[in-house]
Amino acid sequence: MRRKGQQPNLQRQLIALVAGLCLTIILTVCFMVAVVQVQSAITAYTWGESVWSRAQIDTVHHLNRFSESGDFSHLAKARQALAVPIGDLHARVAITSDTLDWQRAKHGFLQGGNHEEDLTRMILLIRLFSWLDQLERALTAWEGADDLLFELDQIGNAMEREWLAAPPDREQLQALRDKLAIVDQQLQVNAREFRLSMGDASRWAASFLSVVSALFLTLVALLSWFLGFRLVRLLNRTEQNFRSIFEQSAIGIIQIDTEGRIVNANQATCDILGYRPDDLVHRPIGSWSIRKTGTLPGKNDGISASVTSTAIRPSIALFEKTMTSCGPGSPYPACGMCPALQRTSQRLWKTFPSLTVCRRN
């Protein structure tokens, strides 16, 4: 009989194989998601650089207009445009510091005109992969613009002071415009270097991730094939073991489907019941299903049966021929499971534990 609490070896192997296949699928999905996130982060930085460059150009334009006309609305627009690269600056400082400041980084990127859904992946890209040569060069160019941005702010303040004085010094304003042109040129150089570095990072990431993806998917395919091969071999070995028990056992064994009909019967069953195999297949067994003691409807006399319920799922019935006397007063043998039935039941449960084994003595 099957011991309670003892998990069959077959069941453990099946669970291990299925768990391995599921883990492989999960790892594949996670890796593909990571690839998409990295590409999206690089694309977000490329978009952010275009916003940064546009804001820097607008700042220079409005400062030039302010220096010429004294219209303070241009100064306000220049400061509004300058807030975009300044926000990106604060975000980068929050990311590259020893302790990551999520709130400051997100607020800075939002101020820099970046999309809210891109903030997390942008932060993680710099935080996790800033050691890459392409990203390191981009960060160097980005950091090189910090002093120039503050110098733009100082030029705007100096122009404001000149126009607040009456009358403004035109030569001083011209000197500030000349200085503004130099700063603008240097900022464009930094922006170009950042753009080229991010482009290199994008191309490198595309090539690297494509190769890694191909290798990873190849590994997943080989592992899936191996797991499938092991699973098929395990099932084939189980079927062979069951078939060996089924065909060689001296105990009668019948396979029953969910509708209570006989699917297959071994030769021992045919010998016990006196039927040919074709006569038993598709024969209903429901009339034997509620502990009915008596003579089985076979052609051999002297076969007694104590029938246990077959349930409503595929099961196996075990039979043993017990010779009895047909004369008056002859006793019937006990209905307990004999050692041969016990041994066969144990072998079947170990080999094919998903089946229900029902004894018939």
Automatic annotation (TrEMBL):
Gene3D superfamilies registered for this protein in UniProt: PAS domain
Species of the source: Marinobacter salarius
Residue spans crossing the bilayer: 12-36, 204-227
Superkingdom: Bacteria
Name the record gives this protein: PAS domain-containing protein
Keywords of the record: Membrane, Transmembrane, Transmembrane helix
PROSITE patterns according to UniProt: PAS
Keyword Transferase on entry: no
Limits of the PAS domain: 238-283
Pfam family, one: PAS
BP terms from Gene Ontology: regulation of DNA-templated transcription
